[in-house]
Write a structure and sequence with these properties.
This protein is an alpha/beta fold and 483 residues long. It has four domains: 1-30, no CATH class; 39-154, no CATH class; 175-351, 3-Layer(aba) Sandwich (Rossmann fold); 358-477, no CATH class. The chain is 26% helix and 18% strand. The protein has twelve helices and 22 strands. The radius of gyration is 27 Å and the shape is globular. The chain starts with a strand and ends in a 6-residue tail after the last strand.
Length: 483
């Protein structure tokens, strides 16, 4: 933070801290004083440590926004989806475009000096401007009346590394189609057969690592932009994206959202895999999948928000995000909520992963069960996240499985680049099982396939205290257990 010191009777004010020593006349206004309260999260420290010519990724949440009450009124009173879309967009987009004019002019002027990076991103679903800027430009942005908040916008890890998702060995196509266990348990086949709802006519935007467009289980479900002509180099539908025939790659800012991770193909198969490879993995096998790539392993908030805007603007009925933003990276929560609500007003709802910390809170509210499963597939690299989930889970289950399925049934989904046949994911990517609830008077637990470092201290091979008696193979002892 900036510290101010004023001697009694002195005629100068000395500021030291984020911007170094500066001296002003006593009655002058320090040029950077208003912005400190606007710097969100760790941005003040990032700017303090940055070199003067270093470009720091930031996002400016603009002061002028369409009031949430007005958006909620639209949601509550206008039930025709197309009409609600037009009214909401006609409120949001012109307001943002007008409010951003002066700030964009400043940033483009600074681009000529190298103080602003080549790419400036704007959003209108919430009024936001993002750019890579020097600390000096960042302070001046935050000092502006038309900027309500300035936040750091780094790339953070939100997906598994590509090597952490392993395809199983390629198999020959099955002779007859099977239905994946979870799809069957949810009753999806009854919905298809008895109600006729297979997802036909619905568009789901997959905000993820992309998707393999030639995978046999999802190739027929890939969305085709009806307003775009492929390969002509023209933004035919005037949506701001050239040749976006099946989605967009927001990470690379191009029209190729092909998956180079497998995570996105997996989630796409979970939504719409039609079983061509032998196993029906999708709950909506006739859905259209709009593919929006926001990274391989890392992404930033603005890319994800841009994908959410694209989904709403291009009339997706819902978007799916199997990602979570680490709370330690100071997400701008009010903006996530605002974009989500504005998207709902335009007719696009969202389904979003809760994340490990949210899962821990939910587990704390669950009733006891016979069996619980924690799947990590990281070779111990995520022990901190494991403890977040396994801690509360231990209090509610009698048997804790590590990297195994309670039912012994593998979970299938479409994988990358043609995938195995049938299209099986690895056997633990999503926990499957229907353990019965249990009222317990005693807390007896067993640990199955749990790595030694993840066992409770009293159950590890080494007895950490000489005074602790343990029952090992029917014998009470304080000794270590032989490996």
């Amino acid at each position: 933070m900036i510290h101010s010191v004023m001697k009694r009777g002195a005629s100068a004010l000395v500021l030291v801290g984020l911007i170094g020593p500066m001296v002003f006349a006593a009655d002058a206004t320090p040029p950077y004083s208003p912005e400190i309260s606007k710097l969100h999260g760790d941005l003040a420290e990032v700017l303090r440590l940055a070199a003067p010519d270093e470009l720091v990724p930031v996002k400016a949440i603009m002061t002028e926004q369409v009031p949430r009450e007005r958006i909620q009124e639209i949601i509550d009173t206008i039930k025709v989806r197309d009409l609600r879309y037009r009214i909401t967009k006609d409120l949001l987009k012109p307001l943002a475009e007008q409010a951003q004019v002066d700030l964009l002019a400043m940033l483009r002027t600074e681009q000529a000096t190298g103080s602003v990076g080549p790419r400036i991103r704007t959003l209108w679903i919430s009024n936001i401007v993002a750019a890579d800027v020097t600390p000096d430009v960042a302070y001046r942005m935050a000092a502006r009346d038309d900027v309500a908040l300035l936040a750091h916008n780094p790339k953070v890890r939100v997906f598994p590394e590509p090597g952490e998702i392993q395809d199983e060995p390629i198999q020959e196509p099955a002779s007859g189609q099977e239905i994946e266990c979870g799809v069957e348990v949810m009753g999806a086949p009854r919905v298809w057969d008895e109600l006729g709802f297979t997802g036909r006519g619905a568009v789901v935007a997959m905000i993820d690592t992309g998707a393999c467009p030639t995978h046999p289980d999802i190739v027929n479900q890939i969305w085709s932009n009806p307003g775009e002509i492929a390969g002509n180099g023209i933004d035919d539908d005037d949506n701001g994206f050239i040749d976006d025939t099946w989605g967009w790659n927001f990470d690379a800012n191009n029209n190729n959202p092909t998956d180079s991770n497998s995570h996105g193909s997996h989630t796409a198969g979970t939504v719409g895999g039609d079983g061509t490879g032998g196993t029906a993995t999708g709950v909506a096998p006739d859905v259209s999948l709009m593919i929006l790539k926001v990274g391989v392993s890392f992404s930033d908030e603005v890319d994800v928000w841009s994908a959410m805007q694209y989904a709403a603007d291009n009339r997706a009925h819902t978007f799916s995000m199997s990602l979570g933003w680490p709370h330690s990276r100071n997400p701008v929560r009010r903006t996530w909520r605002e974009i989500s609500i504005n998207g709902i007003a335009m007719g696009t709802a969202g389904v979003v992963a809760a994340g490990n910390d949210q899962a821990a809170r939910l587990l704390g509210q669950m009733e006891g069960n016979l069996t619980g499963c924690v799947y990590s597939h990281s070779g111990g690299k995520d022990d901190a996240n494991y403890d977040l989930v396994a801690g509360p889970l231990r209090q509610r289950v009698g048997r804790l499985l590590n990297d195994k399925m309670p039912t012994g049934v593998a979970v299938s989904s479409a994988m990358n680049h043609g995938g195995p046949y049938p299209s099986t994911g690895h056997p633990g990517f999503t926990a499957v099982g229907m353990p019965a609830s249990l009222i317990r008077f005693a807390m007896l637990q067993s640990y199955d396939n749990v790595r030694p470092a993840r066992l409770p201290l009293l159950l590890r091979d080494k007895n950490l205290t000489d005074a602790t008696w343990r029952l090992v193979d029917g014998q009470w002892t304080t000794a270590d257990v032989d490996s």
